[in-house]
Amino acid sequence: xxxxxxxxxxxxxxxxxxxxxxxxxxxxxxxxxxxxxxxxxxxxxxxxxxxxxxxxxxxxxxxxxxxxxxxxxxxxxxxxxxxxxxxxxxxxxxxxxxxxxxxxxxxxxxxxxxxxxxxxxxxxxxxxxxxxxxxxxxxxxxxxxxxxxxxxxxxxxxxxxxxxxxxxxxxxxxxxxxxxxxxxxxxxxxxxxxxxxxxxxxxxxxxxxxxxxxxxxxxxxxxxxxxxxxxxxxxxxxxxxxxxxxxxxxxxxxxxxxxxxxxxxxxxxxxxxxxxxxxxxxxxxxxxxxxxxxxxxxx
Length: 299
Prior knowledge:
By secondary structure, the protein is mostly helical. It contains 13 helices and no strands. The protein has one domain (1-298).
């Protein structure tokens, strides 16, 4: 685990303070960020391979995943429809074709990277003592690049403050996810702070798995990755079905991915009026994922 909160947040803060105006530089940063995510996920697989009693630990990962996913989802979906009832959103249907297969394959690719690292670690059986240190070093660089991405995502403070519904949706997700994490922690008899950290991923499965794995170990990291991945896959299936009647529910359940990965689905099925709401909600949640997660891990 990192030595302190300042050391954890410093790369993220430094990155957020750096404005980038050249499109080519931003494209380069986006590409390198994606590559670093793949590298760290492969290292996560190697970490899992180094666990004693791997079969038993995989069962524990699946148990943690199912418990957190059900607890957090139930809490989210208990509150979001009330927001739709109290503050309705007009939607308009658009019939553009969406590359849903491509979106799903992107998620599958990340799962395969983790599985590949696991298989390599098991079959080759080489020394894995270096994996944790390598993961921490790469994570520092990744947080720095993510800070730059958030700063240069196109959202100004004025745009965020003016979109009240996006802010409210993000607050509802935070306010219901954290109690869901506490409930899951009580069920699993693990520290409450671990449950709060696990509940702070908001659908950003790659970063959640990386941060939790580095801070709490590969079992928690694997569970966080699968938990948030399931959230995104369910959101992709849920959005077309409910967004016409429950737009805030659809946008909110998409979590941090509402500003990027699930945004095309939201726009296609809910109309252009849903886009600024989704971007603001997703941006706020994306910004808070590393902040809340690292905070709870450090307690």
